[in-house]
Write a structure and sequence with these properties.
- It is built from 23 helices and 13 strands.
- It is α/β, with parallel strands linked by helices.
- The chain folds into 2 domains: 200 residues, Rossmann fold; 169 residues, Glycogen Phosphorylase B (Rossmann fold, 3-Layer(aba) Sandwich), CATH 3.40.50.
- The radius of gyration is 24 Å and the shape is globular.
- Its main location: membrane.
- It catalyses: glucuronate acceptor + UDP-alpha-D-glucuronate = acceptor beta-D-glucuronoside + UDP + H(+).
């Protein structure tokens, strides 16, 4: 047998025994993409799985982000071509995000022209010959999908007639409940629109919370309805655009951090996984933070909002002046463009940081963050308290959880002044309750990791692959109930009607 024939035979045998995964990531958030790729890469590293990533980028940072080594790529370009013509997208990551708290008017403006961003991936998946052929002929065994990238990921996987699971990089209870089939009591389970602990909500808060969850329910229904109407010529439109349906949900969270809420066996939290990275701390940063005269290191990283290098100079001035008051501490500030006149001896600015490694460094005492789920979990795993400055979306409830668990403090954009920044830092450094609580929670997570090392995301995904046709029993009956039945309005209606007849 020739060498060429042997290679073909080996590849053929490997293909027979390999499972092919299609991974759909987020179109706008780099942290979402990184988590999705991390989970898929863990699967690939077992040597038993082939990974293809399907991507329909909206932001340039997503379009330019490289696939992991060994990944195959299936790129949908129409969405990015349309997104490049929208003026509101760059504004989401420039200095306008710092100027005021999010309002409903700003949110509505942001949705202007956004519908094609939700529908174009469906069009390309169903009608572009190359993409459609790939979905139906590659023999995918399982899809892994970020639910916050829109419905078209589910549509693409349904068109290929293979099952999929959901990987949620953040905690949005309504979406998780909708997919995993557990009831979400609108009155007290915190929504993204009302970032407030359940025990602190008053009547107005709970009313707004109900409206917030109802909006998400309406939006999910509207997206399915409009897509089904747009592609009504498809014979299987009703099946393709029925929503996400019910499946396994892997959540980048942990029950020790969240408040107790209803759940189901279909939800698997993977926030307990070991987050220690493999990046080395650059020598220039190590030399700076390991100064013998330093009492500790404070990390300042606002992720997307400083990656663009467009933080307003007045905001930078506030932070720089506040940091200068703590000359005995060293500040690592992740930012692209930093005015030379604001530099100080205790401030070291860099364009990128190995955040996980820095958080686990013995000198690190505090993280100042935007409150993204990954940053919060990394800090918790490292036992480092936080000051959270939420900018949008799930960052508000994330920091609310941190505040109520006494793991850190919250600082809103409207409260940003030199004095308030310095006051929050001083409180965190002087009151050891925050550090103590953070280290206790880190110890709890570390202990659980040792018990659950065999049940990580890879273990559960392979379990799903083995039993994908027998998992229906884990979805509660309530998942199929409509709005009126779910809240018992039909029963109340019968009682009300009977009382009228009897009176």
């Amino acid at each position: 047998m020739s060498i060429a024939s042997l290679i073909v035979l080996i590849v053929a045998i490997h293909s027979v025994h390999s499972v092919h995964l299609l991974v759909g990531s987020h179109s706008m958030s780099l942290s979402h993409v990184k988590l999705t790729f991390d989970v898929a890469e863990d699967m690939q590293n077992t040597g038993r799985h082939i990974v293809t990533e399907i991507r329909w980028p909206v932001m340039k940072v997503i379009a330019d982000y490289p696939a992991r080594k060994g990944f195959r790529s299936l790129l949908l370009n129409k969405t990015y071509e349309h997104a490049s013509k929208l003026d509101f997208l760059p504004a989401m990551i420039d200095d306008s995000g710092w100027k005021k708290d999010d309002g409903i008017v700003d949110i509505l403006k942001m949705f202007k022209g956004a519908w094609p961003l939700l529908s174009l991936p469906c069009e390309e998946a169903l009608e572009a010959e190359k993409v459609a052929r790939n979905l139906t002929s590659e023999g995918y065994n399982l899809g892994i999908l970020d639910p916050f990238s829109g419905l078209c990921g589910a549509v693409a996987m349904r068109s290929g007639k293979f099952p999929f699971v959901v990987l949620s990089p953040l905690v949005e209870p309504f979406t998780l409940g909708l997919v995993a089939g557990f009831p979400v009591p609108y009155s007290y389970v915190m929504s993204l629109t009302v970032a407030k602990a359940d025990h602190e909500m008053n009547l107005i808060d709970r009313s707004a919370n109900v409206l917030g969850h109802s909006f998400f329910r309406f939006f999910m229904w509207l997206q399915s309805y409009l897509l089904a109407k747009q592609f009504a010529d498809k014979s299987d439109a009703a099946e393709l655009f029925k929503g996400f349906g019910n499946t396994m949900v892997f959540t980048n969270s942990h029950r020790f951090l969240e408040w107790p809420i209803p759940t189901s066996l279909a939800r698997i939290d993977i926030g307990h996984r070991d987050t220690h990275g493999e990046d080395k701390i650059p020598k220039e940063i190590l030399d700076f933070i390991e100064d013998e005269q330093s009492l500790g290191t404070i990390i300042f990283s606002m992720s997307t909002y400083t990656s663009s290098g467009k933080m307003p100079e007045e905001v930078m001035s506030m932070f720089a002046a506040a940091f200068a008051k703590f000359s005995e501490y060293r500040f690592i500030w992740r930012i692209h463009d930093f005015p030379s006149e604001l530099k100080a001896k205790n401030i070291h600015t860099v364009k990128w940081i190995p955040q996980t490694e820095l958080l686990n460094h013995k000198k690190t005492v505090l993280l100042i963050t935007h409150g993204g789920q990954n940053s919060v979990l990394e800090a918790i795993n490292a036992g480092v308290p936080m000051i959270g400055i939420p900018m949008m979306g799930d960052q508000h409830p994330n920091i609310e959880r941190v505040r109520t668990r006494i793991l850190g403090l919250r600082l809103t954009k409207s409260e940003l002044t030199e004095e308030n920044i310095a006051k929050k830092i001083q409180e965190l450094l002087q009151n050891q309750i925050y550090t103590t609580n953070a280290k206790k929670l880190a110890s709890m997570l570390s202990t659980e990791r040792s018990f659950l090392s065999h049940t990580n995301s890879t273990w559960w995904l392979e379990y799903t692959l083995r039993h994908v046709n027998q998992l229906g029993w884990i979805i509660p009956k309530g998942a199929d109930q409509g709005y009126l039945v779910h809240f018992g309005f039909d029963i109340l209606g019968v009682f009300f009607l009977c009382s009228l007849l009897l009176s």
